[in-house]
């Protein structure tokens, strides 16, 4: 196992997560379970999945194959938009737990708010109930805007522990990160290195990679760690898995962090998925 000490962040309600986790999107079947088992062996303790990824069973198999204590692994999954009705949400959460075969899921998120449908508060109430039953241990959201989060708290009295959002140097989400920090909400970054964009070829990233003797992806991940954001990169090979974790040892200076943040664009989203209007089911 990789002995790197990954910095951690803690939410308002005591949830503690490492600042580098492991994304599992598109990891399925035996090959996916093998990649997950190796990731655990290489030192990852946070695994990110979703009902819509159709790989919750693969997550469970990967953990069993790794032979690690279940208590040392944080498994995340997410509720799809088509199941925001309260009873459907509860059944979907139960199904997620059944798929993993792990007895419980550590962190469960609402995948998207789907504001046009406007049932995300109902879905949130289902997550609260599932947590009270003990089948999930912590609850949060994904792709929620501050106004969505404020509404959850005002109508239920329960604030999410996590908000997982698109976040990378072209879309640094400065205001969202500041909002989360002010409320004790952990920010997680999906697509943390960008997906199909040119961020890894930016001169400032390349210069810092040369300075610190790492690849460009390592610099971008170090930028996340410096901002106390939980990055969720995906990597199949042992080499990439380990190099991503090693990014946690790079201590970027404040001006270097600022230089990367300055790469942000007015709307740097990869696919224009604005949570104010985007719907995913």
TrEMBL record:
Q: Which Pfam families match?
A: Aldo_ket_red (PF00248)
Q: Which residues form a coiled coil?
A: none
Q: Where does substrate bind?
A: 111
Q: Where is this site: Lowers pKa of active site Tyr?
A: 78
Keywords attached to this entry: NADP, Oxidoreductase
Where do the catalytic residues lie?
A: 53
SUPFAM superfamilies this protein is in? Answer: NAD(P)-linked oxidoreductase
Q: Which GO terms describe its molecular function?
A: oxidoreductase activity, acting on the CH-OH group of donors, NAD or NADP as acceptor
The reply on keyword Oxidoreductase is yes
Question: Which residues are listed as membrane-spanning?
Answer: none
Which family, according to UniProt? Belongs to the aldo/keto reductase family.
PANTHER family xrefs: 2,5-DIKETO-D-GLUCONIC ACID REDUCTASE (PTHR43827), NADP-DEPENDENT OXIDOREDUCTASE DOMAIN-CONTAINING PROTEIN (PTHR43827:SF3)
Report what the protein is called.
2,5-diketo-D-gluconic acid reductase B
Per the UniProt entry, what species is this protein from, by scientific name?
Dietzia timorensis
